[in-house]
Amino acid sequence: MRGHREGDTDAALLRSVADGDAHALATLYDRHAGWLHARLTRRCADPEVVREVVQDTFVTVWRSAAGHGGGEAGGWLWTIAARRLVDARRVQERAARIETAPMDTDRVERAPAAALPSAEDRVLAGLEFGDVGTALDRISPELREVLRATVVDGLTTREAARLLGIPEGTVKTRAMRARAELRAALVQLNPTPAGGPA
């Protein structure tokens, strides 16, 4: 185990985490947990779920740091966190379905309003699982990450560049390419019938 400096790269920290260095994990946590929490909060209004997802993300990092390809960890961390959030939502939805299942006519209980997904949650779930989610899966991962950061999460070009560890100009270029590829993928999923509107 060794001390870690603020200037250590994410790749160096992840190599140390892969070797079982808890101090390296703590340094990564200090560096990335804040923006992960803020970004997850934009997708989920339940602070307890957000805290659990951040915690689960770093548990996953501890277990799978050796699998990281090197470089900045931001995009990789966000991918893990986004998947954990989707998993958490599925658990909540199952619990809500159980709570709202038909019960004894003598004892009818309703799920609290907080258990129901918000309009924003429903839109984001549509992005993950609907045609847009399918189309997003068809574009390259680096373009998909830029699109999710700038469009879904509403980050500025500068914030997205910092998160993904790439220059701002690259974010802009990838965002333009991503939109074009996403449009093409959506057209393939939903071709316009002959004689229909153009």
User: Which descriptor suits the 3D outline?
Assistant: globular
The CATH top-level class label of the largest domain: Mainly Alpha
Number of strands: 0
Number of helices: 9
Q: Characterize the main sheet.
A: none
The structure class reads: mainly alpha
Task: State the domain count.
Answer: 2
Compressed to H and E, one letter per element, the order equals HHHHHHHHH
Which fold name corresponds to the CATH topology of the largest domain?
Rna Polymerase Sigma Factor, Chain: A
Radius of gyration: 20 Å
Structure notes:
InterPro entries: RNA_pol_sigma-70-like, RNA_pol_sigma-70_dom, RNA_pol_sigma70_r2, RNA_pol_sigma70_r4_t2, RNA_pol_sigma_r2, RNA_pol_sigma_r3/r4-like, WH-like_DNA-bd_sf. This protein is mainly α. 69% of the residues lie in helices and 0% in strands. The chain is built from nine helices and no strands. The chain has helices at residues 10-18, 22-43, 47-64, 74-100, 119-129, 131-138, 141-152, 157-164, 168-189. The protein starts with 9 loop residues before the first helix and ends in a 9-residue tail after the last helix. Residues 105-121 have low confidence and may be disordered.
Helix-strand blueprint:
Blueprint: H1 10-18, H2 22-43, H3 47-64, H4 74-100, H5 119-129, H6 131-138, H7 141-152, H8 157-164, H9 168-189
Q: What descriptive keywords fit this protein?
A:
single chain, 198 residues, mainly alpha, Rna Polymerase Sigma Factor, Chain: A, Arc Repressor Mutant, subunit A, 69% helix, sigma factor, RNA polymerase sigma factor, transcription regulation
